[in-house]
């Protein structure tokens, strides 16, 4: 009964009011660790999280997959947490935890009943200061990652769509490889290479600690100093700057997938950093085109013309660049040219005419609702605080991003569509069934 109540608290933990401003306090420890505190006593729950500024873009071209690999490896244990004990400790104390990796950052977090705040801080400090990185752990997690890649990518229909796009859309930037990387690179890596990667990136001055929930700030600060204050500062991380040449001619590419029977036709455009205002506008454009069954592309291609089984679009914003991707599954007998022309018809409409007042208001309402939902739990608030600081260099965006979206005009939507979504600036990808499969 007690355990059920605890998990009920964890699942219900949320901000007190949908319109509530996220109050926070931030400061730096002497070792460079940035700390953000958010106090919310609406539920007896606390989130302890650390986001490291390391992702797939920080890897070598012949050693891809390291950041994602460490997402797994740093659960192996520490000098004071025995191997295979991490998750047992968390669940035995009524908590849950996880981690995730992108091209730009790696994020670890625990959600505990608030009386286990100290436990969460101790565990994250152990991960930062005392991880056990040895050959046993490397070999074990290598198999785990291989199985993940098989299940989520290699054996999944359309699982390699991002890989097929990224390797053509980027030629200089490390975004050209996938977050999970290549298994032969992990197989070839030595233990010393893994240790060097940890020493370089998993240091307090390359991270942000967020503690959110039912906390007392004075006591929380004392515990943070106790567990993190003595961790040595690492060398400053110096990153290379990669500048892609503009795409001025259309790129054509084909990818064969043995797991699919229906082709997918995608158009992909390189877009600006997530920190640019234009990235917010592109988010709006993706909603106009394919944000639900009333969106322009879905209505036209799926409902009216019956050219596609499904169609989608999204703006994948990242720290240095983004990708705007439109994709669809054609109906039998519909050619690639017909699909691409259907994309272009709707894009041209956006580039030529302002959207109506009614559609614009509906669009703004959707984004306002999405913003409220994005901060609907303590866990989400912690993630958003960390992301706003680490990737946008502006923690206040946790509250201000909706104001940016609300300030976007119909004219800007038209301008941004003209700026980025042109035929000579894109990749056209034929993601098709493997030819040997179709001939059987």
UniProtKB/TrEMBL annotation:
Gene Ontology molecular function, alphabetical: metal ion binding; metallopeptidase activity
Gene3D superfamilies the UniProt entry points to: Metalloenzyme, LuxS/M16 peptidase-like
Swiss-Prot/TrEMBL GO biological process terms: proteolysis
A Pfam family that the UniProt record links to this protein: Peptidase_M16_C
Entry keyword set: Hydrolase, Metalloprotease, Protease, Zinc
InterPro entries: Metalloenz_LuxS/M16 (IPR011249), Pept_M16_N (IPR011765), Peptidase_M16 (IPR050626), Peptidase_M16_C (IPR007863)
Domain named Peptidase M16 N-terminal: residues: 35-174
Domain (Peptidase M16 C-terminal): residue spans on this chain: 189-366
Coiled-coil region: none
The keyword Hydrolase is annotated on this UniProt entry: yes
Family membership: Belongs to the peptidase M16 family.
PANTHER family, per database record: NARDILYSIN (PTHR43690), NON-CATALYTIC MEMBER OF PEPTIDASE SUBFAMILY M16B-RELATED (PTHR43690:SF35)
Protein name in UniProt: Protease3
């Amino acid at each position: 009964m007690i355990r059920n109540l605890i998990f009920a608290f964890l699942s219900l933990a949320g901000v007190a009011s949908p319109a509530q401003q996220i109050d926070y306090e931030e400061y730096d420890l002497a070792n460079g660790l940035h700390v953000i505190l958010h106090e919310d006593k609406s539920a007896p729950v606390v989130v302890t999280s650390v986001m490291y500024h390391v992702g797939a873009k920080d890897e070598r071209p012949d050693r891809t997959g390291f950041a994602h690999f460490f997402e797994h490896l740093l659960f192996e244990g520490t000098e004071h947490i025995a191997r295979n004990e991490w998750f047992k400790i968390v669940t035995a104390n009524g908590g849950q935890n996880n981690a995730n990796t992108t091209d730009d950052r790696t994020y670890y977090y625990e959600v505990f009943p608030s009386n286990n705040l100290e436990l969460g801080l101790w565990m994250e400090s152990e991960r930062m200061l005392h991880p056990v990185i040895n050959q046993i752990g490397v070999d074990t997690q290598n198999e785990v990652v291989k199985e993940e890649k098989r299940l989520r990518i290699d054996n999944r229909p359309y699982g390699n769509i991002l890989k097929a796009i990224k390797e053509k859309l980027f030629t200089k930037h490390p975004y050209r490889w996938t977050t999970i990387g290549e298994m032969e690179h992990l197989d070839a890596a030595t233990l010393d290479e893994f240790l060097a990667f940890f020493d370089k990136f998993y240091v307090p001055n390359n991270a942000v600690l967020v503690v959110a929930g039912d906390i007392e700030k004075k006591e929380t600060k004392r515990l943070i100093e106790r567990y993190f204050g003595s961790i040595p500062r690492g060398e400053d991380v110096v990153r290379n700057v990669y500048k892609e040449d503009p795409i001025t001619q259309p790129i054509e590419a084909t990818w064969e997938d043995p797991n699919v029977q229906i082709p997918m036709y995608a158009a992909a455009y390189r877009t600006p950093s997530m920190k640019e205002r234009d990235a917010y506008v592109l988010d709006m454009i993706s909603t106009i085109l394919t944000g639900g069954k009333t969106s322009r592309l879905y209505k036209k291609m799926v409902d009216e013309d019956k050219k596609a089984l499904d169609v989608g679009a999204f703006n994948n914003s990242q720290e240095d660049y983004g990708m705007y991707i439109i994709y669809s599954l054609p109906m039998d007998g519909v050619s690639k040219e017909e699909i691409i022309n259907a994309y272009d018809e709707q894009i041209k409409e956006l580039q030529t005419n302002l959207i109506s007042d009614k559609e614009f208001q509906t669009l703004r309402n959707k984004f306002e609702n999405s913003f409220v939902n994005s901060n609907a739990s303590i866990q989400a608030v912690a993630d958003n605080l960390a992301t706003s600081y680490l990737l946008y260099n502006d923690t206040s965006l946790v509250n201000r991003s909706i104001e940016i979206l609300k300030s976007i005009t119909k004219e800007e939507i038209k301008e941004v569509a003209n700026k980025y979504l042109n035929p000579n600036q894109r990749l056209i990808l034929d993601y098709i069934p493997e030819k040997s499969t179709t001939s059987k």
